[in-house]
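name: query_chain
kind: protein
chains: 1
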Amino acid sequence: MNRTLLIVVLFFIVSVGLSGCIGEKQPVKNSITDINKSDNTYTNVNVQQAKEMIDKGEVFILDVRTPGEYTSGHIKNSTLLAVQDIPANELDSKLRELPKNGSILVYCMSGIRSAAASKILVDNGFSKVYNMQGGITEWINAGYETVK
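structure:
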């Protein structure tokens, strides 16, 4: 494992621990009406809320899984940003590709990586960040469509 990749992996582990997503210490906001709140945290949403936001065209959909996971099935119109595969020195340029002032819905397989990615976004000045709890696994279990 090269040094840059190791730094990125360690950053994710620390981010997950600090974000409090383990043990549900992260403040959970259960209402989409919290869209305009900017309290330097991200908002956890369930898949039904995420689907509603997507159907209304309210969010940029960000998939933070691996390219292989993305290819196997993803939410329509989502953008892949496999943060764990980006060298630390390239992360800033990738973040510049995202809508800084828009709402961003982040998802992964189960909600752990997306929570870490959501924390990174918030720490970099993104204020309308939504973590889809349960990830694409819960999305599929709810009967929502994916595309390949």
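note: The two ends are 30 Å apart (CA to CA).
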